[in-house]
Design brief:
alpha+beta, five-stranded mixed sheet, 10 strands, 22% helix
Length: 213
């Protein structure tokens, strides 16, 4: 019997409380655990959603998930794969901080003006950079933004390979300033260089600092 006859695919839409992220290799977001009316539910995230999630998402946040449900009748296994995740209506206005993975086009248009001047820090999420301390660098960046009250002004975004694996961890600060072999201990100094009101006359020295073309 062909796969088309043993597998059913249909759309699904569910709401539930966010419990936790399901990670792969200790640092890659793979899916979500949600508490629904039917119990705990695992939802796999489509590739285009995995890098977009804000890892600071508060536990207990009500989320609405839309995607495709695959039922393998031969194995009697059901898999849920999310194509869109957003704050559920029941939580809007009640949760202080919610960062939806995907938003309807109308919401994106309304927010475009307010996020126009938001800075972005790009951090390589590939395994070579992570093994060289990339995870600690990400945590240090989160802490530095929090300590300086810059959470609403600066976004940390994971990226694919930056083609400089042996010199990881690699990151790109605003204005396309690229840094390699960054250590977590250097992050506060780096943040002060790019975001402090009164910058030091002598810039801190980092390896492979360059301007991307």
């Amino acid at each position: 019997m062909s796969a088309s006859y043993s597998t059913d695919i249909s759309e699904f839409c569910l709401e539930g409380r966010f419990i936790d992220f399901v990670m792969k290799d200790g640092y890659k977001v793979k899916g979500l655990l949600l508490g629904t009316a039917d119990g705990e539910c695992y939802v796999k995230l489509a590739k285009h959603l995995r890098m977009a999630f804000d890892l600071r998402l508060a536990r207990g946040t009500w989320l609405q998930v839309i995607g495709y449900k695959t039922h393998d009748r031969k194995k009697d296994k059901v898999t849920l794969k999310a194509e869109r995740v957003m704050a559920a209506r029941s939580d809007i206005g009640r949760v202080a901080t919610v960062t939806p993975v995907e938003e309807p086009a109308a919401m994106k248009t309304a927010k475009a003006k307010s996020t126009k001047n938001k800075h972005t820090i790009l951090v390589c999420q590939k395994s070579d950079c992570m093994k060289r301390g990339g995870k600690a660098v990400c945590q240090a960046l989160e802490a530095a933004l929090s300590n300086r009250g810059l959470e609403d002004q600066v976004t940390i975004k994971g990226t694919g390979c930056m083609k400089n694996c042996k010199a990881g961890p690699n990151l790109v600060m605003p204005e396309k300033n690229r840094y390699s072999r960054i250590k977590a201990a250097q992050v506060p100094e780096l943040m002060d260089k790019h975001f402090a009101d009164n910058r030091e006359e002598e810039a801190p020295q980092f390896i492979h600092q360059s301007k991307l073309g």
